């Protein structure tokens, strides 16, 4: 199945022995000029790339105080070394968070610190060279920017921000990553990562309306570009395209229907994801975000709700107002923006959803906390809402729920292995290996509690798991959307009885 | 990169997807499948042809759900599911079938 060794489950999760250079060969495709230029980057490696890179680093150091603090503060205490899923799965020391940071730190020291300028060898400072750039390209595309290491760092050094800066420097010299940059270009051109034009979205949504009506006897609408709707739903385009994502989208529609709130999707802002964050580009992140503002204004909505997408929620929760605000034209009685889980959770609390948990009795669930939701955002109005709200929704929809080990969930959650712009086939080895710690934790609840499915609220997590789970002896349909569970359990007002429900046959 | 079929060279991207959609000919699909160790059956062609028709109308590959529904309508409900499609295209119907059909690779969180 694979042309690399799939890591074996560790009986006791010991820290693996270091093996230098095991992942040196892992490099995603470099973006061609067609994918670089629309983002404002040079089409190929510029001649004076060293100069440009150092200038860019200087610019970022001036712009982001945190970046300089992170490069200065590390005392090599070692707390982060065994916290990265990519290190645990690959055993490559440059995948230890400190090892990764040092790739940039050594160049920073050489050009920006007194000691590094005059006594480079004493302080581990190094000239920027082709080898260093190669290492950057390889290892800064082996970080999913999940920030697990930062939770354990006594100084709070955030490797994600260092990775983002490194990628921005590489983009500036003309060495960008194909996967991310092609996708951002598609958002600018078409409106979403997949490049789904308006007619394709319309066709897909019409199909969903037919299916839901066939299934339930109720006409649930999945509106597109409807002016005057109360809510604009911004969701990852994978929700239109892939499985199990689309089952979540079906769930959102049913929830809106039962709430009696008018809503719409937008073809202009048909993407929640914002890969501008992955490449550390404020400007591109802002351009992607502005589409949401434009759509909200154009459609005259009062609220913006985000669908199940991990990093989108980070951008939405933490940065949207800065990037694309002010949102003074929206209804101030609701959070701007709101997460679909918050919306559904409120309805459950108010008793507005008729949920029959037994309709999910063919499954026993666990829940994968997505990194960006867990460590870079919040939900609801109490601390830890981003952990409790999705779980409350699952518990309200299912009878069987078991959490994975405490050190692998909540803010200690492991990345799925495909976040941060790494969800591409050319990084499959890395993705499979990086999934090891999550797969081990899943195996444990499968063995101990008979868990059959894992739920998630992130499009990347869902696609990544559907792809890598078969490498670990699971099946690709063992990953589900949280709103898929809601959709299964929800009995719509006026819904026909489901004696002849043929959904179940899909599971056989 | 390129793929050679019957003495004719077709340009592809790094991942083996045809660079120009209009270059496509059935022989290209057969050759690409052969590289993956697959021989295209009538069932494969049903999917490939549907993908091409859909692409022509919508300029994008169909969503997995749209595809399964269309196949189900055409070939019976037992085949209208992604399990059937994965049996035909084990690397994933969206990506592998698109490649054979000469369509660009679906990008994004899929």
- Strand-residue fraction of chain B? 5-15%
Written as H for each helix and E for each strand, in order along the chain, the element string of chain B is EEHHHHH
CATH superfamily of chain B: DsrC protein, C-terminal domain
**General form of chain B:** globular
CATH level 1 class label of chain B: Mainly Alpha
Are there runs of chain B of 5+ residues with pLDDT below 50, and where?
none
What Rg of chain A is obtained from the alpha carbons, in whole angstroms?
Answer: 23 Å
Q: Major beta sheet of chain B, specifics?
A: 2 strands, antiparallel
Strand order of the largest sheet of chain A: 2-1-3-4
Order of helices and strands of chain A: HHHHHHHHHHHEHHEHEHEHEHHHHEHEH
Notable features of this structure?
heterodimer; A: 508 residues; mainly alpha; Fumarate Reductase Iron-sulfur Protein, Chain B, domain 2; four-stranded parallel sheet; three-stranded parallel sheet; 22 helices; globular; disordered C terminus; B: 110 residues; 49% helix
Q: What would your notes on this structure say?
A:
Chain A is mainly α. Chain A has helices at 33-36, 49-63, 65-73, 85-90, 97-112, 114-118, 130-139, 148-152, 159-173, 178-189, 198-216, 238-241, 245-259, 282-299, 310-324, 340-349, 371-376, 385-397, 428-434, 436-449, 459-468, 482-489, and strands at 231-234, 263-264, 303-306, 338-339, 365-367, 453-456, 479-481. Chain A folds into two domains: 33-176, Fumarate Reductase Iron-sulfur Protein, Chain B, domain 2 (Orthogonal Bundle), CATH 1.10.1060; 186-402 and 451-507, no CATH class. In chain A, the strands form two sheets. Chain A has a four-stranded parallel β-sheet. A three-stranded parallel β-sheet of chain A has the order 5-6-7, with helices on both faces. Chain A is globular, with a radius of gyration of 23 Å. The two termini of chain A are 24 Å apart. The model of chain A is unreliable at 502-508 (pLDDT under 50). Chain B has one domain: Orthogonal Bundle (Arc Repressor Mutant, subunit A). Chain B is built from five helices and two strands, in the order E-E-H-H-H-H-H. Chain B has helices spanning 26-35, 42-58, 64-75, 82-88, 93-100, and strands spanning 2-5, 8-11. In chain B, strands 1-2 form a two-stranded antiparallel sheet. In chain B, a hairpin with a 2-residue loop joins strand 1 and strand 2 (8-11). At the A-B interface, helix 10, helix 11, helix 12 and helix 21 of A face helix 3 and helix 4 of B.
């Amino acid at each position: 199945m694979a042309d690399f060794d799939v890591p074996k489950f560790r009986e006791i999760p010991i820290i693996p022995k270091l093996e230098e250079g095991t992942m040196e060969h892992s490099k995603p495709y470099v973006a061609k000029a067609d994918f670089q230029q629309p983002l404002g980057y040079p089409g190929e490696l510029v001649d004076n790339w060293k100069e440009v890179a150092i200038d860019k680093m200087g610019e970022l150091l001036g712009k982001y105080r945190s970046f300089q603090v992170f490069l200065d503060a590390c005392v090599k205490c070692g707390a982060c070394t065994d916290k990265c899923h990519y290190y645990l799965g690959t055993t490559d020391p440059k995948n230890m968070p400190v090892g990764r940071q040092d790739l940039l730190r050594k160049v920073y020291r050489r050009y920006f610190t007194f000691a590094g300028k005059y006594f480079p060898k004493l302080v581990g400072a190094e000239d920027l060279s082709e080898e260093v750039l190669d290492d950057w390209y390889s290892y800064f595309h082996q970080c999913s920017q999940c920030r697990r290491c930062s939770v354990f760092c006594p100084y709070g050094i955030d490797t994600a921000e260092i990775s983002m800066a490194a990628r921005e420097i590489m983009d500036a010299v003309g060495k960008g990553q194909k996967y991310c940059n092609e996708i951002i270009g598609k958002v600018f051109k078409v409106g979403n990562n997949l490049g789904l034009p308006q007619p394709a979205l319309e066709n897909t949504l019409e199909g969903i309306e037919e299916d839901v009506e066939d299934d339930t006897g109720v006409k649930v609408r999945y509106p597109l570009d409807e002016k005057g709707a109360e809510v604009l739903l911004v969701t990852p385009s994978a929700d239109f395209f892939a499985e199990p994502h689309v089952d979540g989208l079906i769930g959102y529609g049913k929830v809106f229907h039962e709430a009696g709130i008018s809503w719409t999707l937008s073809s202009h802002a048909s993407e929640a994801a914002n890969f501008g964050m992955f490449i550390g580009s404020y400007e591109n992140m802002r351009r992607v975000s502005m589409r949401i503002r434009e759509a909200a204004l154009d459609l005259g909505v009062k609220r913006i709700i985000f669908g199940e997408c991990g990093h989108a929620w980070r951008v939405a929760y933490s940065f949207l107002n800065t990037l694309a605000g002010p949102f003074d034209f929206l209804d101030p009685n609701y959070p701007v923006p709101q997460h679909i889980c918050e919306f559904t959770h409120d309805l459950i609390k108010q008793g507005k959803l008729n949920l029959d948990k037994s309709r999910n009795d063919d499954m026993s669930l666990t829940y994968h906390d997505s990194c960006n939701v867990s460590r870079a955002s919040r939900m609801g109005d109490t601390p830890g809402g981003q952990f409790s709200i999705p779980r409350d929704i699952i518990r309200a929809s299912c009878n069987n729920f078991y959490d994975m080990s405490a050190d692998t969930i909540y803010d200690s959650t492991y990345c799925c292995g495909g976040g941060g712009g790494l969800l591409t086939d050319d990084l499959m080895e890395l993705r499979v290996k990086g999934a090891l710690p999550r797969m081990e934790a899943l195996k444990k609840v499968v063995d101990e509690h008979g868990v059959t499915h894992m739920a998630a609220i992130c499009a990347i997590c869902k696609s990544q798991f559907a792809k890598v789970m078969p490498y670990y002896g699971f099946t690709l349909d063992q990953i589900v959307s949280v709103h898929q569970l809601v959709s299964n359990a929800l009995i719509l007002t006026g819904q026909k009885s489901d004696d002849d429900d043929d959904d179940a046959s899909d599971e056989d | 990169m390129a793929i050679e079929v019957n003495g004719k060279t077709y340009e592809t991207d790094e991942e083996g997807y045809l660079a120009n959609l209009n270059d496509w000919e059935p022989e290209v699909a057969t050759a690409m499948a052969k590289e993956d160790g697959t021989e295209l059956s009538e069932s494969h062609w049903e999917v490939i042809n549907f993908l091409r028709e859909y692409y022509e109308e919508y300029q994008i590959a169909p969503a997995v759900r749209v595809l399964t529904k269309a196949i189900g309508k055409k070939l019976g409900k037992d085949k209208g599911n992604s399990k059937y499609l994965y049996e035909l295209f084990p690397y994933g119907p969206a990506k592998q079938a698109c490649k054979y059909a000469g369509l660009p690779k679906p990008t994004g969180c899929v």
